[in-house]
Amino acid sequence: MSFRIRAFALGAALALLPALTTHAAPKAPPHSARTLTLSQALSRAVAANPGLAAADREIAAAGGRRLQAGVFPNPELSFELDSAFGSKARRGLKAAETTLQISQLFELGGKRDARLAVAAAEIDAARWDRAATRLQVLAETTEAFAKALGAQSRVAELEDQVADLDRLTPLLQKRVEAGASSGAEIARGRVATETARVELAKARAAFQAARRELSVLIGDRTPSFAAVGGDLKRIGAPPSFDGLMARARRTPQLTRFTAVRAQRRALLAQAQAKAVPDITVGAGWRHYREDRSNAAMASLSVPLPLFDRNDGGVIEAGETLAKTEAERAAAERALTVMVGAAYEGLRGAYDEARLTRANVIPIAREAYAEVRSGYAEGRYSLLELLEARAALSDASLKEIDALVSFHASLASLEGLTGTALVLSRRDQ
Fold it and tell me: What's the CATH number for 73-106+276-309?
């Protein structure tokens, strides 16, 4: 289990770390001590997550229950004073009989072994629960990192748009001075630039929100990093759905039912063992004060199981064991739905990002270059120029949204399957 979890963390990190590819990555702040990478985020999230800390405590508590389950009942020491403080010949302590006895309860029916089996199964179940929690933490952190990286990329794209529109101002001024355009075009250009600045401000606020969300997951009250570092454009074709489901069936979400079944089977054995009465054996020494004589004594007590044979407890434990398969089937059905939704989201985002990158953006870039050069020559209007620039920016932002959706779905799938997904890289 630990190997699968480490493999998932490594795979997710490689998916977003800078890649040795030929295409240009989105502009981002240079790596520094204040630039957070995915591998750093995952390590810090695992170390800081309170759910994992609670799971560790639960495992330790289960270990304590196992230790306690193995102990034998304590012996019982008793003292009795008889025939004392009576009347006539038994006045005071003249005829007193004193008895000192030690007794020991002996459990029958395999009660101790049943307790040990229950406790051992509880440890296994707690460990599987921790493994499932760890996968969830890794998936949530990776998804939050992808969102932060996408928000950062949106900021970079809108900064490019604003800078590009700012560079149009001198060109607009020249056309007005040459009489090729009216002064109103400068106002239109400023409106477009200021509108882009508003979108940039919104994108920066969204990045700060994503940054704070990621900070909480890695254990920071306030963000300790200024930027996130990774390659959002690294994508690949998803594997087959059947292969993903085969992996998902081996994750802690389902394999934990093996420990649950063992635990409930042990609880049934424990309930059945309660029907077997225990015996208490005692041995002691009695002193007769009247004639100063002594005598040994022994005792044996066994409860008679006439009314309580723990029939209700046996029925309860048996039904609880029987419902394990139904619970597992329900969990597998829910897992299938989640894997299917994440898979379709991954495939849809992959197609959208790939087609936008291969078809839409190159055409929009070529159209904008043509309109920009033609505007300087008077062949296109300012409205056409602004529309071409907006179309290029919209295409780039759509690609970013698709890439964020891709990596979020990928993180979800890796969390559900417990392994790093090997994606085809031919489409990068």
Answer: 2.20.200
Query: Exposed/middle/buried for 276, CB within 10 Å: 0-12, 13-18, 19+?
Result: middle
- Mean pLDDT, rounded, of the chain: 86
Task: Determine the pLDDT at residue 134.
Answer: 93
pLDDT of residue 167: 84
**251-294 per-position pLDDT tens digit:** 898 988 999 999 999 999 999 999 899 999 999 999 888 788 99
Given the DSSP bridges, would you call strands 293-301 and 97-106 parallel, antiparallel or unpaired? unpaired
- Who contacts 372 (Cβ-Cβ below 8 Å, separation ≥6)? 385, 388, 389
Domain ranges of the chain: 2-70+115-274+323-417, 73-106+276-309
CB atoms closer than 10 angstroms to residue 258: 15
* Per-residue pLDDT band at 395 (split at 50, 70, 90): very high
Tell me which residue of 114, 418, 131, 60 sits closest to 262, measured CA to CA: 114
CA separation for the pair 317, 336 (Å, rounded): 29
Cβ atoms of 148 and 211 within 8 Å: the answer is: yes
* Tens digits of residue pLDDT in 154-209: 999 999 999 988 888 777 777 666 666 666 777 788 888 899 999 999 999 999 99
Kindly give the residue spans of alpha helices, DSSP state H, lying in 34-110.
38-48, 50-69
Residue 428 CB contacts under 8 Å (≥ 6 apart), including other chains: 19, 21, 23, 233, 234, 235, 236
| Structure confidence at residue 92 as a pLDDT band (50, 70, 90) | confident
Instruction: Please give the C-alpha separations between residue 69 and each of 66, 72, 107, 199, 271, in angstroms, as whole numbers.
Output: 5, 8, 13, 64, 15
**Is the dihedral angle over the CA atoms 181, 184, 189, 192 positive or is it negative?**
negative
- Picking from 418, 423, 422, 417, the residue whose alpha carbon sits closest to that of residue 5 is 418
Collapsing DSSP to helix, strand or coil, 278 comes out as: coil
Task: Decide the pairing of beta strands 97-106 and 35-37.
Answer: unpaired
Q: What is the pLDDT of residues 319-360, one digit of tens each?
A: 999 999 999 999 999 999 999 999 999 999 999 999 999 999
Q: For the domain 2-70+115-274+323-417, what is the CATH code?
A: 1.20.1600.10
Residue 313's nearest CA partner among 268, 277, 262 is 268
Domains 2-70+115-274+323-417 and 73-106+276-309 share a fold: no
Here the tokens at position 151 are: 């928000």
pTM score over 0.70: yes
Chain CA centroid to CA 359, Å: 37
